Amino acid sequence: MKSVPPDFTTSLLKMQSEDTANANEVIARYIGYDLNVADFENADWRNAPAVKIDLYWSGERAAASRHAEARLLWSDKALHVRFVCQQAEPLIVSDRPQIETKTMGLWDRDVCEIFIAPDPNSVERYFELEAAPTGEWLDVEIHWKPEQRESDWKFESQMTTAAEIEKDRVTIAMRIPWSESIPKPQKGERWRVNLFRCVGRDPDRGYLAWQPTKMSKPGFHLPQVFGWLVFA
Questions:
Q1: Which pLDDT tens digit goes with each residue over 87-120?
Q2: 107-117: buried (b, 16+ CB within 10 Å) or exposed (e) per residue?
Q3: Rounded CA Rg of the chain
Q4: Coil, strand or helix: which one is 173?
Q5: pTM over 0.70
Q6: CB 72, CB 26: distance < 8 Å
Q7: What is the pLDDT of residues 130-177, one digit of tens each?
Q8: Domains of the chain by start residue, with CATH
C-alpha cells in the first residue's frame, strides 16, 4: 500500500505468535524440491511454523473474522509463501482480473503482502510483493532515501501466484524465484521481513500487519519495524 510515514522509528515492535520461537521471527523451512505454487495442501506446509497476522497497523487487535496466518518455505529455486485468511465479509476484488502483468493499485483491494529486505544491513532497500484472491499480483522495488521513497515499478521478480476461495476462507500463495535482486540464501541466513493483509472497504477497511507500524494513519512502509526471516 502507498502510505508514506511522517518519520522513521528505531524501535522493533513485538506481537504474540504461537508457533515461532521469537515474536519478531518467522522461520522458513527448507524443502528439497520446487513446490508448485498451487499446492496448497502439501504436507510440508504443516511443518512450516505459522505466524499470526491478527493486529491492525496500529497495534489494535483485529476481529477474529479478519485474522490470517502466513507460512514460509524455501527451496533451491524459490521462496514460497502461503497465507490462509478468514473471510466473513464480501471480497473486494476486481470483476475483470488479469494476471498476465502486474496490477497497479492492487493495494486498494483485498490483498496479502510480503515485504522482504535480503540485506539486513540495508533495510531501507526492500521488495514489496502482493497477491489477491483473484490471482492478481504486484511487485515493486523500494528504496528509502532521506528525502523520499523511491519505487521502481519496472522491477520484475518473475513471481507466480495462486489462490483458492472457500466458504469463510481464502488461501493465497506466492512463489518468488531467486534472482540477482533476491538471491538464494544459505541456511542460517537472516533477512528482514514483514507480512500484511488488507481486507474490506472504507470506512471499515482493515490494514493488518504481523509487525505493526503504529503510524499516525494506516501504512506499512516502515522498514525499521520489520521482523526477521530465518532460513532453516
A1: 999 999 999 999 999 999 999 999 999 999 999 9
A2: bebbbbbbbbb
A3: 16
A4: strand
A5: yes
A6: yes
A7: 999 999 999 999 999 988 999 999 999 999 999 999 999 999 999 999
A8: 25-231 (2.60.40.1190)
